[in-house]
Amino acid sequence: MILAESIIINNNLSVEEKYVELIKQVKSLLDKKDNLLSNLANFTAALKQTFEKISWVGFYLFDGEKLYLGPFQGRVACTEIKPGSGVCGTAAEKKETVIVEDVEKFPGHIFCDADSKSEIVVPILKDEKLYGVLDLDSTELSSFNETDKKYLEEMILFLSQNIL
Predict the structure, then answer these.
(1) Within a domain: residue 4?
(2) Which residues contact 112 (CB under 8 A, 6 or more apart)?
(3) What is the CA radius of gyration of the chain?
(4) Is residue 97 part of a domain?
(5) Is residue 10 included in any domain, yes or no?
(6) How would you list the strands of the sheet with 129-138, edge to edge?
């Protein structure tokens, strides 16, 4: 049996319209009955496939002490990050989304990818406890904004309430 999953987003849509379409499709793509790693892998693939501005997207999952690399799309990455370190660790520690327009100007930024210029990191909370973070990088400055924050947080809320 062959199962084919696909994400179909019109490239002519605005960023906001792409998110609206993507959220609908991700909600039907992800299934709590599937393996968690498979769901997280498809989640990252859907984002990477939809937005050309994303050079790297992935999850760092919290084991109680550190964030460790989970499913991702992009170049080889750092395998662990301490809470409070870099953009991912800062978002994890504060339990709030962090948008960085220029990573060169973020104190303590961890350069897993030397080509990364901007970043957004969304914490994943389950029952008010840190589960991990979703990290998106771009090779362009100022790639992420409040629109990305709004829809990525909505997607993460769906993930934490329905899949984790």
Answers:
(1) no
(2) 56, 75, 77, 78
(3) 15
(4) yes
(5) no
(6) 80-81, 67-73, 56-62, 129-138, 118-126, 98-100
- In whole angstroms, what is the distance from residue 56 CA to residue 2 CA? 28
Angle (deg, nearest 10), helices 15-29 and 146-162 = 10
What's the longest Cα–Cα distance across the chain? Answer: 51
Tell me the pTM.
Answer: 0.93
Do the bridges between strand 56-62 and strand 67-73 make them parallel or antiparallel, or are there none, so unpaired?
antiparallel
Q: Residue 47 in contact with residue 26, Cβ under 8 Å?
A: no
Domain of residue 70: give its range.
15-162
Take residue 153 and report the two structure tokens written for it. Answer: 């947080």
| β-strand pairing of 80-81 with 118-126 | unpaired
Q: What's the number of domains the chain is made of?
A: 1
Q: In this structure, are strands 129-138 and 67-73 parallel, antiparallel, or unpaired?
A: unpaired
pLDDT tens digits along 107-164: 877 777 778 899 999 999 999 899 999 999 999 999 999 999 999 999 999 999 999 9
